[in-house]
Known about the structure:
Blueprint: E1 3-5, H1 10-27, H2 32-42, E2 47-53, E3 59-67, E4 70-78, H3 87-101, E5 106-112, H4 116-124, E6 128-134, E7 143-149
Helix pairs in contact: 1-2
Amino acid sequence: MEIRAGSLGSDEDSCVRLWLDALAARDGRVDSLAVGVRAREKFTQQIVRFAVLGRDVNGFALTIDGGEGVARLEMLALEVHASGRGGGRALLADALLNAGESGYMRFELQVRDGNTRAIKLYESAGLSEVGIGQEHPLGGRPMLTFACCLV
C-alpha cells in the first residue's frame, strides 16, 4: 500500500471527484456543485500534509494548519471499492505522524454524527470526541470534533 505526497493540480482534481463519490455512496446523494467548491477551497489553505494512496489515487487525506499548534484533518476518503482494506487507517496514521513530525501539538478533525465507520477508525487511532456537535455548513447531521495530543 503506497502512500505518496499528493500533487496540487493533477491529484487535487482526482481527490475532489473521489470525495464527491465517497459522500454520494455514504449519503445517497450530494450537492456536487456546493460540496465540490467547498472541497477545492480546502486545498488553498496552509497544507500540513496532502497524501495520496496509490498511483491512481485510490484514496487521500488532506491535513491543514488549524492555527495555534493544531493540525486539522479536513478530508479523508477512499474509493468505494478500496474501502475496508486498511487504506483509511494507513492514511490516518500518515497524517498523525506527519503532523507530529512537523511540530504540531494537537490533531483534530470533524466527522458527521452517525458516521460510525469513520468514528470507529478515529477512536482506534487514539482520537476522542471533544466538545459538542456543531451544525454542518451545508446542512444535514451535526459535526462531531475528535482530537488527540501529539506530544
